[in-house]
Specification:
Elements (H helix, E strand, L loop, with lengths): L10 H6 L6 E8 L1 H4 L9 E7 L2 H5 L20 E6 H9 L3 H15 L6 H8 L1 H4 L5 H12 L11 H16 L16 H6 L4 E5 L5 E5 L2 E4 L4 H16 L7 H24 L48 E4 L3 E4 L9 E3 L1
Parallel strand pairs: 2-3
Antiparallel strand pairs: 1-2, 4-5, 5-6, 7-8, 8-9
Length: 344
């Protein structure tokens, strides 16, 4: 210890403290269990938002998503992700699925009586400044989950065509000279303007303070080298050509359920600008690792009252009865059924 560091906190001790001193400002079960559409074998995911700790400031660490230790009420999970508050706000503004669902889960939890952290409360109070009704991310995710089981390419999906147009411009620039692959998108003369000339490309400053191009719901920072940019777009395009013709019926059903859920959410955003999560009592029945208290979010140890609690014996075996606007009713008929049914 030197004279210059004598008055500073022990960074090693801060880093070894609970969650490295980071403050969880909201956390919730996620995925199908957040929507109340879980079935036997569904993943138990946890998502949340955190405020950086003192150690993050002292070592000037780059804020990034991380795994923290959740509240015991949320149960055990192998899929835990917490977003730093600044990135979370950025993702909400850009209507990224994960962040938007967490935002509305927090909004609903507060409306149902949960006391949220003051930082999260401030973010929620700015709802009208942060949220728009852009449903493109949810529709795109629905397509990706469904088309893997459908031969051919969806002619109505404009995302692959847009990515191919972007790739064509990037490859043309890359092949223009031996030095071009080592140039960034911003450095190559006229490339940014050419990309912005494509219908569907936007420009914004991302969470890292970088100028970036928005390609549908994905970003491509302008400081990306052309060689890396080409690989990134080719990787994205490869996802649209992936097919799973031999997938088992349970996997197909799960993916289609997710696609329907995303389309329902998109419809909610288009119609009301809001998302409501119908979380039933059955979320805790027969689920290993499920939370003891099924309320959205976590800040207290005791169960909290929730509007529309389901108590009937039939509903106890019906974790999802959400109306899909395609006039399909998704019903997980029984926790013991190997494949729940889709009923008209």
């Amino acid at each position: 210890m030197t004279l210059h560091t004598a008055g500073l906190p022990d960074i090693a001790a801060l880093m070894s403290s609970h969650n490295q001193g980071r403050r969880i400002i909201f956390e919730t079960v996620y995925g199908s269990k957040l929507y109340g559409c879980d079935m036997q074998g569904s993943d138990h995911d946890i998502r949340g938002v955190y405020a950086p700790g003192l150690a993050d400031f002292l070592i000037e660490s780059t804020e990034r998503s991380c795994t923290l230790i959740p509240d015991d009420d949320l149960g055990q999970s192998d899929d835990i992700v917490y977003f730093p508050a600044a990135h979370f706000i950025d993702h909400v503004i850009r209507m990224k699925i994960n962040a938007v669902e967490i935002f509305f889960a927090a909004l609903q939890a507060r409306a149902q009586g949960t006391t949220v952290h003051p930082i999260m409360g401030y973010i929620l109070d700015r709802r009208n400044d942060l949220i728009n009704a852009d449903h493109a991310g949810f529709v795109g995710h629905a397509r990706q989950r469904a088309t893997i089981h459908i031969e051919g390419e969806d002619p109505d999906d404009k995302i692959p065509a847009l990515n191919r147009a972007v790739l064509a411009l990037i490859e043309k620039a890359t092949n223009s000279s031996p030095a071009a692959p080592a140039m960034t998108i911003a450095e190559f003369p006229g490339l940014v303007d050419s990309l912005l000339g494509l219908d569907g490309i936007t420009r914004f400053v991302n969470g890292n303070g970088e100028n970036a191009l928005g390609i549908h719901t994905r970003q491509l920072p302008e400081n990306t080298y052309l060689a890396a940019a080409g690989k990134t777009i080719r990787d994205r395009l490869s996802r649209f050509s992936r097919k799973a013709p031999d997938a088992d019926l349970a996997t197909v059903f799960k993916d289609l359920c997710t696609a329907l859920r995303m389309m329902e959410t998109a419809a909610d955003l288009m119609e009301t600008g809001h998302i409501v999560f119908h979380v039933p009592e059955a979320i805790t029945i027969g689920q290993s690792g499920a939370p003891k208290s099924p309320e959205i979010g976590s800040s207290e140890k005791s169960p909290r009252p929730r509007p529309g609690r389901t108590t009937s014996s039939r509903q106890a075996h019906l974790p999802c009865a959400r109306h899909i606007r395609t006039r399909v009713m998704l019903r997980c008929v029984s926790k013991s059924s190997p494949i729940p049914a889709i009923l008209p």
